[in-house]
Request: fold
Amino acid sequence: MKAVRVAQMQQIDRLTIEAGTPGETLMDRAGRGLAEHMLMLAEWKGWEACVVELIAGRGNNGGDAFVAARYLFEEGFPVVVRSTAEAGDFSGDALIHLNRMLAAGIPLCALTDAADWQALDARLEPACIVVDGLLGTGTNGAPREPVAAAIRYINAMSKNALIVAIDIPSGLNGDTGLAEGEVVIADMTVTMAAPKRGLLQPGAVDCVGRLEVVDIGVPDACMEAETDSEEWAWIAPTDVARALPRRKRTSHKGTYGHVLVIGGALGYTGAVTMAVKAALRSGAGLVTALVPRSIVSLVALHVPEAMVVGVDETEAGSISHEIWSDWRPRMEEFDALLMGPGMTRHKETFTLVRQILRESSIPLVVDADAISVFAGQPHWLDKSSCPLVLTPHPGELAALLGLNAADVQADRPGHVLATARATGAVVALKGAGTLVAAEGVPLHVNLTGNPGMATGGSGDVLAGLTAGLLGQGLSAFDAACAAVYLHGHAGDRVAWRTSQAGLIAGDLIEELPGAFADVVLR
Reply:
């Protein structure tokens, strides 16, 4: 889903209203969509009728908060509504919905001085969800009091409550993704109609949290008239759903692809095991793993659904490059190949991966050690004549390009785009706000996932999931986008239900069926 700039969104709103949808109706749809996402959060957390506190500014975001408060109240949720403005300060559509909220029996608590907000004790407030409806996308510069004090209050509440931002976290610039003063740190941002460009910028990731987009009924013609010329895009669940084909009743295991995973070494069985499990959980019909003979029994024990084959190994217990002469003629048996997890950086790994890049006849996913062995030699990765997906973390990409990780993190978009151009590959640069780049398409940003996924093995799960989707016939770009979304969504499902701190990579694999179920019906 393409991103829009603030001015473009304002034009989209104007065109939509001129086409016959009143602003009052658009606001009602926005607030109802916001309420639905909070109901979803409460369900994920197992909260029944938890207190929701909504903080409203005097603009349209405040109006969205009033609508959401009314819908939540009707669902039986206790709501508290506070505002930085008096009721008499509201106008237009926001005033209409304020009056409807008041008529429903929900009072408005106006706190118009910074001291009023400072007097609130965040430790004693009972809310489980706090909603930021202070500032919209059209504001610039550092927030002024009492809004700045309200932002500090919301952030203090995050110790005991989840924070949900309406449209954009207050204090964040809708185009640049930068904050010039106080800014809300949200767990989730629910934006309206289309993702705003600023929400997708690397500097905004800590503020935005998980991104959701509410369909408020903007006509396609109005949306298509205004698009971001720089072509930033957000990976939406609808994009993933479109990429995943419906399964035929008459299908069999051969219908959904045969994935080959090459990896593992003596002492490094976990990475390849998790990659194989994730490939199986992707929906692939068959998965074969080539591992050193010394670890066959260990891997096979943990993945009985896969075919685990032992092959020749080096003196260090890694896979020998000599296996390729035997397996190259068999590549027509497979639909996708993953290499890298647990392979180690042995000199024979470099030789083997180089041979496969040059001679493979099937789509490839290159991850972990299979990337690291090309440190400072990215030119080797443009040798593949098949679809190629690279899944580096910042350190691996930095080593590949002869940089350090801080350089990559300072310009994630620039480096991932340059790598995609130089290699001809689809490149998924992992991390908060994973970026998926390929020539000729917008830079795609994924905003599912959470800090709990910063744990060993998480990348191996993503690599296996990507290979599994690639083996089912998805294009390299669609497979990468779908994989990063589902991988992050699985992590969110675990974290919402349990915790971020307790999340391990194996949880992601077990949660993948539920992640798929949230995107596709079957």
About this structure: The chain has two domains: 6-234, 252-517. The chain is about 40% helix and 15% strand. The CA atoms of residues 128 and 160 lie 7 Å apart. Residues 6-234 form a domain with the Rossmann fold fold (CATH 3.40.50.10260).
